[in-house]
Amino acid sequence: MHSPVCIIYLFMGVVLAGAVIPPGDLTLVDHGYEGLVVGITDDVPQEYCNDVLHGLKSVMESFSNKLWQTTNGRASVRDVTVVLPQAWKTDSLSCSLWSPLTQVASPMNAHIRVSARHPVFGSMPWTQQSRGCGHQGDFIQMSSDLMRGASAGESATAARLLLSEWAKFRWGIFSEVGHNGDPLYPSHYGIPGKMEDISVNTCHIEGSNDPFCATDDHSPEMPNKHNNLCNGRPAWDIILESDDFNQGRNNPSNGSSLVPTIRFVQPSLPRVVIVVEDTAVMNLQRRWDFVRKAVRRVVVYDVPDGVYVGVVIFNSVASTVAPVSKMESLSDVRTRIGSSLPRNPSRVPESHKCLLCGIQEAIRAIQSSSLDAKGATVILITSGTVTVPDLEIEEMARLSNFKSMQIHLIQYPAVQNLGLSAINHGLQNLSIATHGSAVTVMDEGVGNDSKVTMMVALMDALLLSIRKSGPLIKSTTPMIVHSQAYSGGVKSEVHGKFKLDESMASSARFAVYYYDLNHVGNKILLTTPSGKSMSSVNIQEEDGDANVIFVNIPKAERGTWTYRLENHATSHQSLNIQVTTTENEGHSVNLQVWTNEKIPNNQSQPIIIYAEVKQGMLPIINARVVAMIRRLGNNGTGINYATTYIELFDNGLGDPDVTSGDGVYSRYLPNIPELQSGSFELSVTATNNNGLAVVPIDNTLTRTSQYFQEHDYSCCGSIVKYELLSSVQPFQRTEMYGILSRVSNGNEGDQEPPNQILDLRAFVNITTHTVTLRWSAPGDDYDWGRANMYEAVLGTSWKRTNSFVGNKIIGMPVPVLFGTEQSVDIQVEQYDQVIYVAIRAIDESGNQGRISNIARFWMPHPPTTTPMPTSPQPLGSRDSFREYSERSTSQSVKVTGFSLDDIAVIIGSITGFLVIIAIIVVFCYCQTARHRNCQQKKNGEMKNSVIVVSASDEKIKPDGNHVLKDTIVENTDELSKDTDRISPAHSWSATKLLQEHERRVSVTSGPLTETPDSAPQYQLQDPYPDVTMMGNQYHPSYQNPPAHQFNPSAYQYQYDYQQPYQYSHEELPAYTAQGQPYQSSQGSTMIISETPTHRSGISFPTDTTSCISSDPGFIEDLDPNFHPPPPPMYAVYNEEVIKSSEPIKTRVPPPVAAKPSIPTHNIISTEHKRRNVTQV
């Protein structure tokens, strides 16, 4: 079974260390900085060349002099290397150089970047600082406009601004000025006893050369970023503790500052030499065969045109098997170099190998091709299982640094049973010393064979090293956007999906890597995002020398693709699917990964993972960045260890993320059992977070609204604010970092404290005399989980509060999950003085987090006419807030509560409100009950009276016609006006009543009519139909009433319908007195029940029975062929009206039975008894 498909970049055992190349070596030697690199980015036009270069020269000279003065003769600048854009033509008049130009192939990561204007910082210099206090920053960036202005005589101002940023970048201090609108570091704060606000940066005097406050002038109480992150320590103290000056280095000098020497370089296409170990260790299994296939795949298919590539092998000696040559797609040079390795390795023991010989041979190979080895890249493939002498490593590092070469180490293979010794840290330090990378490919042998996943991992490691060999080829070198291995063992069809987005080039390559060609089925089916199937039978490319099948996809559709193919691999092998493409230069997204670990296995500090996500030079905000870390090797059963996913944040909470909105995402490595002692591989994936990611816009049309032109203070504090933002096109990038080696320190149990709270704020409510404290919750183990409890203190001394000595606050809330904002209100009765507050978190094991930043507040004294509110427990007298004595006891402050007066008012208000509600409820209930009783009484009266309209009376209609009142259904309102109602006993004669009674008693007493071709049929005796009190009308289903016969029911409620009602013969159910279907002996009958809207307000029950009787009728029992005809006078009624819940507002004529003809010979009913009735 294969694992679930995921669109991520996994290296299947490949591990990389030092993936992000730090800036070159910048050292302070004999009071002069050497190795300072200034890079000019590609977005600076060439027509600015002369102005930018001359301005840069003036700024560097002035900067060196100011640096000398600021450090009291400790430091200045000795040399500067300026890296020009590759597109600049230095032989033109617009770009004339005063020193020779050197071509360098190795990437020169600049300490200072000169670029176009920034959307927030404009042309002002600024520093990206991803790490905490005392750590070197990432880089300094300033605008080319500032350099152009410096060439016009403003170099002193630019040098002073650059010096301020240099102190942040080199020595790890932070801004001591406030920032407008910043939630943590305000631009101004109130000084007690004065009405005006005083700027935070009080120690800075206009025109001063000092970029920071001196120790004597430093105020640790001021709420600025430096005091917050550096615990109030003076900037100068932190500078003196740096590597430049500690332990007596570079003491003050009486000499003068240095004038920097400037040299110009321009990057060129890389020169790459692949140096491969050729010893007996490669004879095992298929290790050597996989090396040959990996080199061929990368050289033939992945290396961009124009790159110089050569191949060297070494054992006890070294030799060149492929001279350094320029790659061209139209020649066979790729095939010749890719197939240059010997078919079989040598039998020289691994212990006799000479790594230094391989490095020296690589230099000779470059020079023999009439190329300069300076800046070249060496990719070293070696097993690394034999310890390399330190002297040999030091010599290789010296030689590489002399030639400015990078060494990318690929340790192949790393055997798992050797444990941590499989990671040769000596070789790893070699790659770090040369600003290269270190990759480990785990051994995946099965008996005398090797798994194909090991070959794919080696190919990925080589591709990664090529991508890092120079910035000029990174955008044209393929990157892996999807990689998935499908295990074999059972013939099956595998399927998966991958995504291509706008940040990628238009073409892509789908590749299938196999151990044996027979493991791959004949068909590979690709489906485009629009659903179009794409058969690859005629477009496949096979390369048996690299064990790969290619499917090139030109002009690939953007979106999610799917694929299907047959997997015939054996149980120990697999099919590996990879999709590669190049970057879209118009939407380039860059992802870089690094950690705070400088030395492998450093146990003195926790590991922090950093990832920078940018589009060009602009940060991508709100991206989703996830780190993936997995232990190397397998768990002993052949199954790889599970992957741990860690989401990184750009939240600016200070620990560990310093600034929000700078595009740098970070988080602590969690202390969980899966990540204890061992070696781990680390990679990071960044996406556009389902469309939530945005990027700043540099609106060149409104540059007058730039931040620094609107405000006269610097940006930014805890957050970088942008005026204009734009959505980022969908993207997905994965970057490998590599090896993280962790060694247990032998201490068992929880040793990780909660992280430091650095966003504590205090808000004063002068009305209630309360203070609201707000902060972001820390974790249990640094920024993971939740802490166990809080401790907080108050005091009038910043120094003692910073030592966590003062009045303790009791009743603090329970901590919540990391990053969630919490708050608490406290009652304060000490007025007209500054009060300081600090907080820290404690986990369940008792590990205490560092003390938070010190928040301060000022509580003004309330007016004298207002009574002083009381606190549940007073903070103490005013004298108690003065400088504390050395006693260790302290008072406690409770969280805000209510006074007795407040509680009494609240209880009284609530009680009064409840009483009012109760009165209203009782009144409503009485009114409702009274109305209900009246209604019931009225209903009873209506039920006990029967309204009979006599046919003996006449009514004259408005048109003058005389009609019988029998034939008119009166309006209820009109009838209600008649007080003299006539009962049935007074309106009918005794004989009439007797006949009506006998008719109801015998429903079959009518004559039996015989007709031809039909069974005998009973008819009703009397033309009066049956009567119901619910509007349910009774009709024989087969009987056709006469057209002119109309006799209403004797007892009928007065309905008021506006239109005649039509019954549906099929929908009339049979009638019974209980409301159930009833089958008459005269044929199938139905009823229909309605609830008319009566003006008198009487409620009519509804009969829900409206189904056709299921019992057979009497006539049908006699003759199965009988089909009763429907009544012709009743048309079928619309079903929508029948099913409507609205009351039917049509006038219902009572159904009338046909008057029967009564022949004497058909009567079979019994003779009715008759009696004279004189009075009923």
From TrEMBL:
It comes from Meganyctiphanes norvegica (Northern krill). It comes from the Eukaryota. Residues 1-17 form the signal peptide. Residues 27-187 form the Calcium-activated chloride channel N-terminal domain. CDD domains: vWFA (cd00198). The chain crosses the membrane at residues 903-926. This is Calcium-activated chloride channel N-terminal domain-containing protein. Gene3D superfamilies: von Willebrand factor, type A domain. Pfam families: CLCA (PF08434). InterPro entries: CLCA_N, vWFA_dom_sf. GO terms for cellular component: protein-containing complex. The keyword Ribosomal protein does not apply. The keyword Secreted does not apply. Keywords: Membrane, Signal, Transmembrane, Transmembrane helix.
